[in-house]
């Protein structure tokens, strides 16, 4: 809200541009929710002061999510009497104020360290290999590092990172930050602490880490196969450059929303792929949105157990509680319903936007991905309001819902007789 | 297979039409799976002999499904040690050969009685109020009654029942048969036997009966609201006729696939409505397809329980077994995956069919509904093969999967430690 007011001030936009309330609201919502959808051409609309505000909002939004979600998970775990190895050292099971402060400092320091590392590498490359002054390189590198790590999709260039799509010194550091931020700290801390013994990771960590690896790998291969000969995207690149561009597009755009290839030029076969990846999103308590990697793969394990006739759902020698299965089901199906209803509404509002385009933009906003096929600016005020609501719902919805569900467990003094209806 | 050969014989088509193998295969698959999708203009392509073959295939297909599914449910129930009040009188819990023969005879007699009743009413109306000979009226009434009861979508008229859309004497008997056949016998027998005490119905019966009522009511109201002023469909009708046409369209087309209003003229807002209704389909062990009404509403109850924080999922004072919840989840999510993948494939095959159209035709085939927006004939050989596969999969898939899942329960001699990952 404060960001909206700030962005409406005259110095925030270039010369004769006067941001309307809705434009400022959309942009600040997009920044604070680390989505990155834009209704205006970011670099040609906002002044440097405006871009700094966007950067600060993004960083605050990202830190708020990372720390807030970590606290929510800690609280829920404590209330459920669960030992949360993901966030707190196994030996310090007391969740005292000191521990919480240490956790938040740990998160903040990791964020700054990652962003600094990314900025240094990208600044060096821009300064040495391109026609940038040191200051210009630092500004661009810092801006995009913060955007990438926080999985937000604003860019200083109208076509995203297209100009650097074949430069691994630019795309790989940003992709690294995007993946790290998109995995989230609960899984990341445990994976780093126990990197020698991945078999001992908690179920949520295993699902998130291996799931993210699978999604990026499958996404890269599928994108490569679909776009291989598309001259509008990677068709004219050498084979190694195609691989680099496809990998960084998937790593950066899947959850972050920074484009590496022109999104308006991708083949229609890439739409369902990207919609599916955006809908799944990143890790729990990460800067990425969506229903979460762990939710998706947990459901896959449920189905697999069901097909094999296993009485329990097991992930790496651990049995998954029925409560978690029901939570995953609820989050996934409610999200499907929200996306489907919103897409239908957007189609009605916009007088017949193509279905795949509507699904793309809606999923992008709901999963706070910020990827677009280039129609965001044309959706009209009602369409923009819908996207604003979806960005808020998508940002705070799934975790709030999940934790509310986990906490709000009623105890029954009696149980009804059981029945086993046959379905299908 | 036999039907395919039969339909390729010269006397089956009109004069100079020579059905290709694929056309015959598609039509016989469509008839035996009681779908009703057509690649040719049925009345202007097949001779009377061909139409009789289609009728016989439809009736055999419908009876096969009704009896086969009833036997599967009986077998599964017995293997699970469940008492199946749905199919067998509560007092006769022995599933001897005599009981099974009695059950099959009961089903067959009910089918014939319903179809005869429908045929009599429609014949009388066609003979008296329209320009039909008695023989012509009987043929048309019998054909459409068998199609409607078996929830198959072939018609003797190129535009379905459009000419009768304002005649309750025609549409209501057919809608009645379609709904009865689409509810299925397990639920129907129990509902009829215990009609005074609906609170005592089994969970599956409650979900199927009340769920069907809700779906038809919601579908009718939504269709009425969307199409109210659409001059291509019901816009020019009087209010009462609008209601009649909307109700019979939903009752007949939701699972049966017989059109009452021109399907090519419906508004785009009706697409998601009809796709959603087709995907859900009808009752278990009915002539309708889809993931089944009970599957859909069971998942709704799971989500509702989850949101309210109830430890158990209860439906009308009965606790639903976790195994049933997992089965419903598996059937629903695998079906979503099949439809999404098939729609993407169809779009690729047909060189960019609009997404909503592809989803419509794929869902129609997979749910064996047979409703079309008029493009079935134009999908090409590869598209037709895809639809043929989907009709088979959709017909035998969900129940086979569900019962295989229910039967294939492994016993474990040990269990792993439980974990409760937090999702969302
Ligand atoms: K984003
Ligand atoms: K049908």
UniProtKB/TrEMBL annotation, chains A, B:
Keyword annotations of the record: Cell membrane, Ion transport, Membrane, Transmembrane, Transmembrane helix, Transport
UniProt keyword annotation of Nucleotide-binding present: no
CC per GO annotation: plasma membrane
GO molecular function, one term: monoatomic cation transmembrane transporter activity
Protein's membrane topology: Multi-pass membrane protein
Recorded coiled-coil stretches: none
Pfam families: TrkH (PF02386)
Major place of residence: membrane
Residue ranges crossing the lipid bilayer per the database entry: 21-40, 52-76, 103-128, 169-189, 201-226, 274-307, 328-349, 385-407
UniProt cross-references to InterPro entries, sorted A to Z: Cat_transpt
Keyword Cell wall biogenesis/degradation recorded: no
One GO BP annotation of this record: metal ion transport
Domain of life of the organism encoding this protein: Bacteria
Location within or outside the cell: Cell membrane
Protein name in UniProt: ATPase
Lineage, uppermost ranks: Bacteria, Bacillati, Actinomycetota, Actinomycetes, Micromonosporales
